[in-house]
Amino acid sequence: MARRRAFRLFTAAVGALALAGCGLGDGPQTAGGVDTSGEVKGDITFQTLQLSPTFDGYLRGVIAEFEKQHPGTKVTWTDIPSNSAARKTNADAVAGSLPDVVDLDTGTLAPLARKGLVVDMGAAADDLKAGFVESAWKSVSFGGSSASALPWYLNTPVLMKNSALLEQAGLASAPDPTSYPELVEASAKIAAATGKAGFQPTQLGFHTYLRSLGVPLVNDQGTEAVVRTPEAIAFVESLAKLQKSGGIPADAVSAQQRGEIETFQEGQTAYLETGGSRLKIIQQNAPAVYARTTLTKPLAVNGKGTWVVAHGVAVPKASKNLPTAVAFAKFLTSADNQLALAKQSSVFPSTAKSLEDAFFTAEGGDLVAQARAISAASLKNGTTNATPAAVDSEFTTALWSSVQRAIVGEVPADQALADAETKLNSILKARQ
Amino acid sequence: MNEQTVSRGEATLRWVLMLLASAVVLGPLLWQLSTALKGPGESTTGFLSGLVPSDPTLDNFTTAFTQIPLAGYLANSAGIAALGVTTNLLLATLTGYALARIPFRGRNLYMAALLATAALPFEVILVSTLLVTRNLGLQDTLLGVVLPQAVSITSIFVMRQAFRAIPDELEEAATIDGAGPVRTFLGIMLPNVKGSLAVVTVLGFLDSWDHFIWPLVVLSSPDKYPVNVGVQYLSGAFSADQRVISAAALVVIVPPLLVYLLLQRHVFSGLAGGALKG
């Protein structure tokens, strides 16, 4: 707890320093546009989030190709662990020591974009916008045509099922749930029949459940929270009921959370909505559960849409070599390079053209291939929702801490969501 | 206490309590060891399920060293810890001595100010520390990692208490015998605080070994990462084999354990406070 508070203090301090213009960056740090044109030449630094050592070969190849196409350039690549990347990035942003090209998750990107520290790709790469999956572009955009980064790789879920548990509950041949309310219904049946839980709601996931129900979370301008809608109230009420009946793993909501993947691996939950990339982890840690895992389409994919998360490739305005940095960001996120990355991993390209490849439509095969086909279909069919930029980790933490109390039955759902709205509004107001 | 005076019931109770305490302390460690020894086909999840690996293997340790440059990370940590222990010993001893035995104006105020800074979480001063380090040109260097934690307030406090416990008569006797301040310090004072020096060594080592966020922020070359930061590479979005992670975690706790075991005898005498032999 003390640690979390300290972290909050720290982020506040970073914000204050950045606003006060205490950064030591040598480049222009104005909020307005910067000139990114010029000769592509010279040295740049490039930082990724935990892609080493798995993708060492791939990234070195891309860098070598770029240097070959643009003689006189040199790209120095470093890779940092994704855990705590946000803290390092914030500190670097204030100290003016961000690399020239950075790979970031949208949650870490959002504060940099709000402070105007990164190049607007909507302006610098206007011609490329049409080539990206719409929800991917939206994930990194902040209203209008501006974008804080070029979209890079994506992840979007499938619904994993523990078929052994479903059999025990007599749901083996029942139709798969297609929405969160249906998932809650199935979970109640599973709890009644087997004493095991249906699924584990999480802090990171909760806002995506609401989005899939059509709850906007924020208004179009990102200035006001909208979480207290009739659908949201009914959904939180149903979760509270489910919690009481044991349909949610004990202590998963009230106590320090155990990962939802862990509880699924242990056979404590029947459903898990997550990216196909997690299949390998489940296979490594719980071979028995993996053997009985089956897949289906993510929830709400044919309704309001499922979630997508994107990584963005951003160029800080303080970069001393903007033309080369922007050129490299474009090269890295090009359709061909993204397709090559996707083929050696379990992530998805953000370029629409890459998704046309036969690799993403292969029928049958193992669970990984099945997951790939299901998720690629969501992306191609345009049934994925970008998370609004205002909904970052600060937002989701505040939302969850209110809702948590309703799920465990301490306050009524309506009041919890009203509390959440008040809290979120003051967070959003502080950012303006 | 004499053995015979302990009743059978009390002895049993003692044993039960001791077993309980060791279970609490050692249980998680054993669990980790069991996970680290499990073969690829075994499940690593579930409470106490399969605590004894059915297909034990040492491959996970090999994998931990080959999947990431674990040996290099360990060497980096050893360098940081060695430097950290040295600066801690040097600075804590000198500061602690001055605070305990040299009267100067504002001494109490100085001590209070030192203690007050201990209450600040490091995250709060992270950015300003980074700016200072950067302007000194120490970013991405070993010295840059060690300098902000060169001495801990706890170490200074431990040394101050140790020096305070030495009776004035000892110092006076040394002066009468013609020893100067330096001679008194080296020949009389230091030998009397050996236990506390051991405590500071262990504390300094653990401090340097455990630091995570600062090395991550100040270093920009991953090949300079200490082991705490480096092992993060084992737990990613694309792969997180609990067996290999556990194996690496076990390797990481060996050096602090060794340092502690080597100095154990001195640490206990230091903690007991009575550094002066009766």
List keywords for this structure.
heterodimer; A: 432 residues; alpha/beta; D-Maltodextrin-Binding Protein, domain 2; 2 domains; six-stranded mixed β-sheet; three-stranded antiparallel β-sheet; 13% strand; globular; disordered N terminus; B: 278 residues; mainly alpha; MetI-like fold; 68% helix
How does this model look, in words?
The complex is a heterodimer of chains A (432) and B (278). Chain A has 432 residues and is of the alpha/beta class. Chain A folds into two domains: 33-155 and 308-380, D-Maltodextrin-Binding Protein, domain 2 (3-Layer(aba) Sandwich); 157-307 and 389-431, D-Maltodextrin-Binding Protein, domain 2. Chain A contains 18 helices and eleven strands. In chain A, the strands form three sheets. In chain A, strands 1, 2, 3, 4, 10 and 11 form a six-stranded mixed sheet that branches. In chain A, strands 8-5-9 form a three-stranded antiparallel sheet. In chain A, helix 17 runs antiparallel to helix 18 (413-431). Chain B is 68% helix and 0% strand. Chain B is built from 13 helices and no strands. By secondary structure, chain B is mainly alpha-helical. Classes of the chains: A alpha/beta (432), B mainly alpha (278). Chain A binds chain B through residues 2-3, 6-7, 9-10, 13-14, 17, 24, 50, 52-54, 78-84, 87-88, 91-92, 94-95, 97, 262, 265-267, 277, 280-281, 284-289, 345-346, and chain B through 40-46, 67-68, 121, 123-124, 126-127, 130-131, 134-135, 139, 212-213, 216-217, 220-222, 229, 232-233, 235-243.
Number of strands of chain A: 11
CATH class of chain B: Mainly Alpha
The sequence of SSEs of chain A as H and E is HEHEHEHHHEEHHHEEHHEHHEEHHHEHH
CATH level 1 name of the largest domain in chain A:
Alpha Beta
Query: What's the CATH superfamily of chain B, by name?
Result: MetI-like
